[in-house]
Specification:
The longest helix has 16 residues. The protein is built from 15 helices and eleven strands. The protein has an eight-stranded mixed β-sheet with strand order 6-7-5-8-4-9-10-11, sandwiched between helices. A three-stranded parallel β-sheet has the order 1-2-3. The chain starts with 7 loop residues before the first strand and ends in a 35-residue tail after the last helix. Helix 1 packs parallel to helix 2, helix 4 crosses helix 15 and helix 9 runs parallel beside helix 10. By secondary structure, the protein is an alpha/beta fold. The chain has two domains: 73 residues, Rossmann fold, CATH 3.40.50.2300; 252 residues, P-loop containing nucleotide triphosphate hydrolases (Rossmann fold), CATH 3.40.50.300. 39% of the residues are buried.
Length: 360
């Protein structure tokens, strides 16, 4: 049920006890567009009231005539026509063009910012060296992605939530495994199953990819709405970014699927955005300013930058980015012009026409 999100669920009377009604209530809460019909249950008023409170829309005694069942289903369908299903989460993947670019810091910090108004799950897919949790929390995870993968047959929303560490009321992290041997057992199909479930229950799903390009990370990148490739304004980083973009091109990713974030950017530095554009071509470029000391201190303390230095220019820039990615009702569109200090002259690829193009 968790993975298929059906429109109709028929429940046998044997499931009409207290535990069964609790399960029905859980599912009807998570899938408000699903109609629940209980068959062969008690007609006692107290039971009927409990069933309706749990989300049951029709209670039919057994044996039920086909015409009665059809009529009940039609009534439930008519009531549900106006209910909008929950929108699937936006999926953002963060991948470093070069080691030390700051991809994990940006993923965790942005996740924390987004969680101020939306529900966020960050999945650490840097299976060899992942430590995303340590960037914002000092706890050791009771479960990791490897544990979820090993019990993939049990996968549902409750199991997924229980396997995460709740960093903030709306921000959870599914940690990477500590044991490299466990990481080797995780398959692309398992990652796909976790992601397919996660997008049904969160507003945003962030993927910290690390830097590896392999079947597992490609499966995750395939499922992302936007890939944020993290780089710095250096010759070595530009060289690696060019290789990364060539890989994305070979995977037939659309140009508007990839954004470049230039981290620790110095406006008066030796290499500017114009230089990077000449080397890499026209992309959506975003910049995050350099604040090395405070950012490093927040990472070493395992505390989100926004909580220990909200006035920091990096924290302010990420807060602005979060507002753009998750606009609140009533906000205007002016923020797009300032999105993460986007360099003047760089235009979003195909944004005006919505055309789909392969990366240049």
């Amino acid at each position: 049920v968790e993975r298929d999100a059906p429109d109709l669920m028929l429940v046998d009377a044997a499931c009409g006890d207290t535990d069964g009604l609790a399960q029905i209530e859980y599912l009807s809460t998570h899938y408000p567009s699903m109609a629940v019909v209980l068959l062969g249950a008690s007609s006692a008023p107290d039971f009927l009231l409990s069933a309706m409170r749990a989300g049951v829309r029709e209670v039919l005694p057994l044996p039920v005539a086909p015409a009665e069942l059809e009529a009940a289903v039609n009534r439930a369908a008519a009531k549900l026509r106006g209910i909008e299903p929950r929108a699937l989460a936006k999926v953002f993947a963060f991948i470093a063009c070069k080691g030390g670019s700051g991809a994990t810091f940006l993923a965790t910090s942005l996740g924390y910012q987004l969680s101020e108004t939306k529900s966020v799950l960050l999945i650490d897919l840097n299976l060899q060296f992942g430590d995303a949790l340590a960037f914002v929390h000092d706890a050791r995870p009771a479960s990791t992605l490897a544990d979820v993968a090993r019990e993939i047959g049990r996968l549902d929303a409750a199991f997924l939530a229980a396997s995460t560490v709740k960093v903030a009321p709306n921000f959870s992290i599914l940690a990477a495994p500590d044991d490299h041997a466990q990481a080797l057992d995780i398959t692309p199909a398992q990652v796909e199953a976790v992601l397919a479930l996660a997008v049904q229950h969160y507003d945003f799903v962030l993927l910290d990819i690390g830097r590896s390009i392999d079947p597992l990370s490609i499966k995750a990148l395939d499922g992302a709405d936007t890939i944020f490739a993290i780089m710095q304004a250096s010759v070595a980083s530009i060289r690696n970014a060019k290789k990364m973009l060539a890989i994305f091109r070979s995977l037939d990713y659309a140009a508007d699927k990839v954004d470049l974030i230039v981290n620790r950017f110095e406006r008066k530095g030796a290499i500017g955005i114009a230089d990077i554009e000449r080397a890499l071509g026209k992309f959506k470029f975003h910049t995050v300013p350099n604040s090395y000391k405070q950012v490093t201190a927040s990472i070493e303390h395992g505390e989100p930058l926004v909580t220990c230095a909200r006035a920091n220019p990096v924290a302010r820039k990420l807060a602005e980015f979060a507002r753009v990615l998750s606009p609140q009702p009533g906000r205007g569109g002016g923020l797009f012009a300032r999105l993460l200090g986007r360099a003047s002259g760089s235009q979003p690829v195909s944004e005006s026409t919505g055309a789909r193009h392969v990366l240049p």
